[in-house]
Amino acid sequence: MNTILLGAPGVGKGTQAQLLSERDGFVQLSTGDVLRTEIANGSELGKTAKGYMDRGELVPDTLILNLVALRLDRSKSYLLDGFPRTVAQADGLTKLLSDRDMKVDVVLSLELPVEEIVKRLSARRVAIKSGRVYNLIFNPPKKDNICDVSGEPLIQRSDDQPEAIRVRLKEYENKTEPLKNYYDQRIGIQIIDADGDMETVYRRVKAALA
Ligand code: AMP
Can you tell me which atom of ligand 1 is nearest the CA of 168? Predict the structure, then answer.
């Protein structure tokens, strides 16, 4: 079963994807995580993507689709987190999946009021190597600023600064939000209330997937 997690930046897609992969065996494919790994590795692709990401803009569709194509042969089903983000990516995904006799089966949209999103993004900290996401208010690490799993120091993403947050929310509204209609017409989407702690939202997500 291929599942897409839609939703604005900061609604908790990454956190829910992490829980579903740890507890339920979903194979998470997060384009944001892949891009951050490329940047950490100093690859050419990472260098190209970094400028867009730091400004809060979307990375060009062709680059994203190439990157996803390279990773689609590892499993029979995926939990897609942060992808697709544009109609062109959604069309590209349909093609990539149908070439492999697969399709999108479920689309969930996590939704949260914008003030709550800004609050969450400002308090977010990440561990690059382990890919884990923390929130200083809702889901802090056991030791201050240290990843529970890898022991590496946590960082604040450069795109979690106020100006980049503003651009990302605009990008979401203009380019990604239309995907709700796109998928609703093709597959049907389920709206998940993302307000609440991560266990509460996880229960809602699981209920939608049941
Ligand atoms: P995320 O970790 O999903 O919030 O993504 C962080 C940043 O990576 C975004 O603000 C974009 O600059 C870039 N990015 C991640 N996924 C995509 C995508 N599917 N399409 C375009 N840009 C993306």
Answer: 10
**pLDDT score, position 157:** 86
d(CA 70, CA 10): 26
Q: Is the CB of 182 under 6 A from ligand 1?
A: no
Which regions in the chain score pLDDT beneath 70?
none
pLDDT in the model for residue 99: 94
30-58 confidence digits (pLDDT tens): 999 999 999 989 999 999 999 999 889 99
Centre of ligand 1 from the C-alpha of residue 35, in Å: 8
Asked about 71 being catalytic, the answer comes back as no
Q: Model's pTM, two decimal places? A: 0.89
Predicted pLDDT of residue 194: 96
Please give the distance, rounded to the nearest whole angstrom, from the Cα atom of residue 36 to the centre of ligand 1. Answer: 9
Which residue has the least CA distance to atom 1 on ligand 1?
A: 32
Q: For the chain, which domains are there?
A: 3-112+172-209 (3.40.50.300)
Is 100 in the active site?
no
> Is 74 noted as a catalytic residue in this protein?
no
Active site residue 203: no
